[in-house]
Amino acid sequence: MKKLLYLLFVLVSVAAVACGDSGSSEDDATTAPSTGASLLSDTPAPSSADDAAAPSDDNAASVETSETDQVVTEAPAREFTEPLSGGVFRRLWADPPTLDPHLTSDTTSAGVVVEVFSGLVALNVDLQLVPDIAESWTIDDGVVYTFKLRPNARFHNGKPVTAADFKWSLERAADPKTASPVADTYLNDIVGAMDFIEGNASEISGIKVIDDRTLQITIDAPKAYFLAKLTYPTAYVLDQETVEAGGRSWWVDNPVGTGAFKLAEYRIGERIILERNDDYYRELALLDSIVMNLAGGQSMAMYENDEIDITGVGLFDLDRVLDPTEPLNQDLVIAPPGFSVSYIGFNTTKPPFDDPKFRQALNHAVDKELIATEVLSELVQPAYSVLPPGFPGYTDEIKGLMYDPDLAKQLLEESQYADADSRPRIVVTVPGTGGTIGLDLEVILEMWKQTLGVEVEIQQVEWATYLEDLEDQKFQAFAGLGWEADYPDPQDFLDILFHSESGINHGAYSNPAVDSVLEEARTEPDVLRRIELYHEAEQLIVNDAAWVPMWFTGERYALVKPNVEGYAMTPMIVPKLQEIKIN
Amino acid sequence: MWVYIVRRLAWLPLLLLAVSFITFTLGRFGPGDPVIVMLGNRYDPDSQVTKNLRRELGLDRPFHVQYVDYVWNFVQGDFGESLRFRGQAVKGLILKKMWVSAQLSIAAMIVAVGVGLPLGFWIAHWQGRWQDPATVTVALMLMSVPIMVTVPGLLWVFCLKLHWVPCSGWGGFFDARILVPAITMGVPGIAVFVRLMRASTLDVLGQDFIRTAKSKGLEPKVVGSRHVARNAMIPIITILSFSLAGLISGSFIVETILGVPGIGRFAVESVFNRDYPVIMAVTLIAASAFVLANLAADIAYAFVDPRIRYN
Predict the structure, then answer these.
(1) Count H helices, E strands: chain B?
(2) Which residues in chain A are contacts of B252 at CB distance < 8 A?
(3) Which residue in the set B56, B249, B261 is minimally distant from A270, CB to CB?
(4) Are A522 and A491 contacting, i.e. CB atoms less than 8 angstroms apart?
(5) A301 touches chain B (CB under 8 A)
(6) What are phi and psi of A50, to 5 degrees?
(7) How do residues A487-518 score in pLDDT, each as one tens digit?
(8) Could you tell me the CA-to-CA distances from A570 to A322, A340, A390 in Å, in that order?
(9) Chain A partners of B268 at a C-beta cutoff of 8 Å?
(10) Omega before A352 within 30 of 0, i.e. cis
(11) CB distance from A31 to chain B under 8 Å?
């Protein structure tokens, strides 16, 4: 008996050790998913409990930005007579995978890169294309772009920026050895660029240095969106000497850029400090410095404790913040939708989703308005089309597949899968590791069941595996995805996602009529006609019910300290911190 | 003794080779790869960009070439370059993170040992009285509180009410921000050390040599410190040294919630991102630490208890 007691004691001790010292490993399994998604997504505002609660983070965090501070106010006009003592702006950020502009492909990196580096052209906070290092340009025949560079543009090390620097930089970005994940996305229109990316050319033939201040770029066809693509960091200018001397880690040791801020300090996992570049070629920034806390934490709590100047507001804090008697309510800022859309995708080659009527029935059976108001506290805006509101080419004239339970039932009856017994089993796959699949998706599945009697199973797959299977078109239906614009042009949504030959048309959607309209739009020089073509394509895609569009990241709530002036919330990452001032 | 140590150490390379092979194989043949994660839903296996990335990261080479190459570099002290943080050396990345986790674990250990051992020793002398079960019960209750409750509770008190510390973040060992994570990680350990020390002390108290010591007229204090406490420490050392190995492995949950840039959080993120070189390095270092801590425990026995000899 005594022995037994002793054994029991040993067991208890062992269990105690297991729980005490490494108990976290057990807890990991239960809590990892909520944070997991945001870790993967490289979300700028890292994994806090409140952020995880925001619906668009839950559903589409893995792909789209969840920068909670999207669009809001017009930046007030600056008064240039004021002395430059703009103070310090503090915010939560996450470790950027890279600060090398040419390798940048995520919003976490881009948010820092656009402030430190720059290129020929840029987007301002109103998303208008503005001259940056190029002070002017001419376009001949829609394909030959001649840029005139500013005489006073300098690198942070004092060297002037020349046209040769741009040629070298663009070629470095496209070099197979650089292995930029986005080189083909942003540079493929330049004549000779694809040859160079494939390693079959010694230079990009379409880029010519006319003189120190004149650069000529020739593209393969008139494309309205080409300049917009050049605003992305892939096309930024770098100092050849710095990059070649520094090796692959040049941006850690000696990040010489051209932007309004210099990278003063980068301590992995701790902080990034940006300081004003007093030799900037445009209006100097007002802030003295920006401190980005990389250590993570609960954004809302840190804001309340005055550790950071801006935070997003998640579902759980929303009621409190919206209460006018709460002091925090004074800091509330409301942001119009970001440029992203979340959706449930169907593989249009796999039964039962190969029948458009079945897909349409599922669309008509979802009451998105109800979910948006009752479940998601209006943090999102229901989507019935593809292009987000405010995005170039957006129109509210697209006729969406609205909620109509009777029509849904009728369509289901007309489809070849009307009979529940012979209907194939339906599985929707979402990324994740055991956590919740998101309230909105749960409600949608329930609506399908109640309205149509269509039962759907859920399968969760870890993120990297999910991406691989998605690409292999293994999924019958998939959710938890969103698409966010790379550059403000409808081509970036419609052509890339729905052209039958696009490598990332994950639902294998194919409609020859859509293909031909999209191809015509690619090179249509008349802007208005081109937009019309995209409207036509979008309507066809919506009619075919290639997706169930779910949400445009709708009105998002953020808090900004009252002494911060001029923080513009933008639906895309653009250089904007030079506009801020701390009073 | 020295022969014993050398023999034990000689096993280390073989062990590491086995661990590295298993980890490497699991990584390469498991689903997903770093290029897919990097490209997200823009991934297209046939695109030139994908091919360029695979080639540049060396992932297009045959498995055995990659493995041999890895081992050869590792032997030379080169842990490679992170695939997620391209351009950053793995060694620099993980040493920083491990140092953070180690500081936090030491702080947590100070809490657990500093409270647990004296308490365990003390209540052993009160066996059968109310102090004994009361202390053990309280310690066990504290241990059973999940982190999801501990952390918000501590934050509410220290951060939001008392304003002693910022709510999250990290400033090093001597920064106030270490308080909440150290208490969170240390408190559950108190129960472990209380119970162990109590049992161990009781065991020693019943031994003949204690009776001898008492009967030859030694001061109770001297008996307590020189005979009881010292002998009671032997089993504790085992636990302590295993905890040492845990020093560098960190705690994913606490590090994530409280914004501590430690190795636990980093390792899990690296797995999700398929950052092979980082996963390899963390695994191998953790394996080495475990072996060395084990060895340290065996050696420590010999010092504490002269009866133990290794030959």
Answers:
(1) 14, 0
(2) 24-25, 28, 32
(3) B261
(4) yes
(5) yes
(6) -65, -40
(7) 788 988 999 899 998 878 888 999 999 999 99
(8) 22, 12, 11
(9) 28, 32, 39
(10) yes
(11) yes
Question: Closest approach of chain A CAs to the CA of B207, in angstroms?
Answer: 17
A455 inside 8 A of chain B by CB: no
Is the distance from CB of B309 to CB of B302 less than 8 angstroms?
A: yes
| Cβ–Cβ < 8 Å for A116, A197 | no
CB A31 to CB B269 under 8 A? no
How far is A93 from chain B, CA to nearest CA, in Å?
11
CA distance A314 to A47: 12
Q: For residue B44, list chain A residues with Cβ-Cβ distance below 8 A.
A: 471, 503-504
How much is the pTM?
0.76
In this structure, are residues A472 and A478 in contact, taking their beta carbons and an 8 Å threshold?
Answer: no
CA angle A351, A354, A358 (to 5 degrees): 90
User: Å from A513 to nearest chain B CA?
Assistant: 24
pLDDT in tens, B124-167: 888 888 888 898 899 889 888 888 888 888 888 888 888 887 77
CB-based contact A467 B189, cutoff 8 Å: no
Size of interface A-B (CB pairs under 8 A): 228
Q: How far is Cα A226 from Cα A175, in angstroms, rounded to an integer? A: 20
Query: Whole-angstrom Cα distance, residue A481 to residue A345?
Result: 8
Distance CA A285, CA B274 (A): 39
- Name the pairing type of β-strands A261-267 and A88-92: unpaired
Find the range with the poorest average confidence among A508-517, A534-543, B194-203.
B194-203
**B272/A36 touch (CB, cutoff 8 Å), yes or no:** yes
Distance from CA of B304 to the nearest CA of A (A): 22
Q: Which amino acid is at A333?
A: V
DSSP B25-78: HHHHHSS--HHHHHHGGG--TTSHHHHHHHHHTTTTS-HHHHHHHHHHHHHTT-
